[in-house]
Write a structure and sequence with these properties.
With 371 residues, the protein is an alpha+beta fold. It folds into three domains: 3-75, no CATH class; 83-159; 185-337, hpI Integrase, Chain A (Orthogonal Bundle). Helix content is 42%, strand content 11%. Strands 1-2-3 form a three-stranded antiparallel sheet, with no helix packed on it. It has a three-stranded antiparallel sheet with strand order 4-5-6, with helices on one face. The radius of gyration is 31 Å and the shape is elongated.
Length: 371
């Protein structure tokens, strides 16, 4: 077995297969730019990735990890599980979640900041500092989605995996109440006009049906009855866990007829493939070009509900169309239609509108009439 030195002065040995092993037990695997560690304690050998391509950082990692394993063997200490251990286990066990892809995206964004950290060291203050400094997470709601995911992982590490004696407490940030934003018909027309061709039918269908983004992009032909002009959202796909039936209006039918034949399973496509994810930068550019910067995909649902409320749709019917479980969510749109209150408002006496009363009051104020 050949032993050689590199420019750093550290010794390596050729282990065969093109891999060179560091004198501390570090080595490179073919096809991987990370350093891997081979550690033997009391006859037990473990092989783990250090998660870094930096040699000095890998040396610090293996020294720390070797000390941890020694304490576990000698004193029976609980193994120290790190952030990357939790990510792998969580994503494997949570594949059934509707928002699994969202979880994966959030965990990928946080990985550089939390890589190598023991789970017990991921405190509320540390996480908040990471989230508030990230340029993409500008609102409390956006940051809370990350907090909720991290909190769920830490709780599972304590209660099910038994990796922690007590999980760090992660508190959600207070979110200011928001009624949601809606756009006018003129703004909606501009939004559709400047959108790329594969996005235009999605926008039209959202404004026609009020479907949530996940239900829009996951819409399948087997959930649509064109003959009866209706679609349904299954309990597994519905936010409230209850099936939703929705009648299809003329605009929705026009969109569906234009999409027929593009894909055997999914309604909305891009270049023949299911259109499952809207690029954030593309959406921002479209909104800016349409003169509605900052508009969210979900605001199309608010727009749909606002237009129906303005048209005088009964709140109970709006609740059923939107798939909301209570009227509380519908009440945010109630101020957009006040026709049902007009009769009550007209009951105020109209004496102040009489010119004689105004003249009498003016004379009284000027002192020409005494009481």
């Amino acid at each position: 077995m050949a032993v050689f030195a590199c420019g750093t002065g550290r010794l390596y040995r050729n282990t065969g297969g093109g891999a060179a092993e560091h004198s501390m037990g570090l080595y490179k695997r073919d096809g991987s730019h990370y350093w891997w560690a081979r550690i033997t304690v009391n006859g037990r050998t473990v092989r783990e990735s250090t998660g870094t391509a930096d040699e000095r950082a890998a040396e610090e990692w293996i020294a720390r990890r070797r000390a941890e394993l020694w304490r576990q063997v000698q004193f029976g200490e609980r193994p120290i599980y790190r952030w990357e251990d939790a990510i792998i286990k969580w994503l494997e066990e949570a594949k059934h979640k509707k928002d699994w892809r969202g979880d994966r995206q959030r965990l990928a964004l946080l990985y550089p900041a939390l890589q190598g950290q023991p789970l017990g060291a991921i405190t509320h203050d540390r996480l908040s500092k990471i989230l508030t400094s990230h340029p993409q997470l500008k609102t409390p709601g956006a940051r809370n989605r990350y907090r909720a995911t991290i909190r769920a992982i830490l709780r599972k590490a304590e209660r099910e995996w038994e990796w922690l004696d007590k999980a760090p407490i992660i508190r959600l940030e207070r979110e200011p109440p928001s009624p949601g934003r809606w756009i006018t018909r003129e703004e909606a027309t501009r939004l559709i006009a400047v959108a790329p061709p594969h996005l235009q039918p999605v926008i039209r269908f959202a404004l026609a049906t009020g479907l949530r983004k996940s239900n829009l992009l996951g819409l399948r032909w087997d959930h649509i009855d064109l003959a009866r002009r209706q679609l349904w959202v299954t309990p597994d796909d519905a936010k409230g866990g209850k099936a939703i039936g929705l009648p299809l209006n003329g605009l929705a039918m026009t969109v569906l007829n234009a999409c027929r034949g593009h894909h055997p399973d999914y309604v909305f496509t891009v270049e023949g493939r299911p259109y499952r994810w809207i690029d954030h930068r593309t959406w921002q550019r479209v909104c800016a070009d349409a003169g509605v910067p900052g508009l969210r995909i979900h605001d199309l649902r608010h727009t749909w509900a606002s237009w129906l409320a303005q048209a005088g749709v009964d709140p109970q019917h709006l609740k059923m169309l939107g798939g909301w479980s209570t009227l509380a969510m519908v009440e945010r749109y109630s101020h957009l239609n006040v026709e049902h209150l007009r009769e009550a408002a007209e009951r105020i006496p109209d004496t102040l509108s009489a010119q004689s009363d105004i003249a009498d009051f003016s004379a009284y104020r000027n002192g020409r009439i005494t009481c």
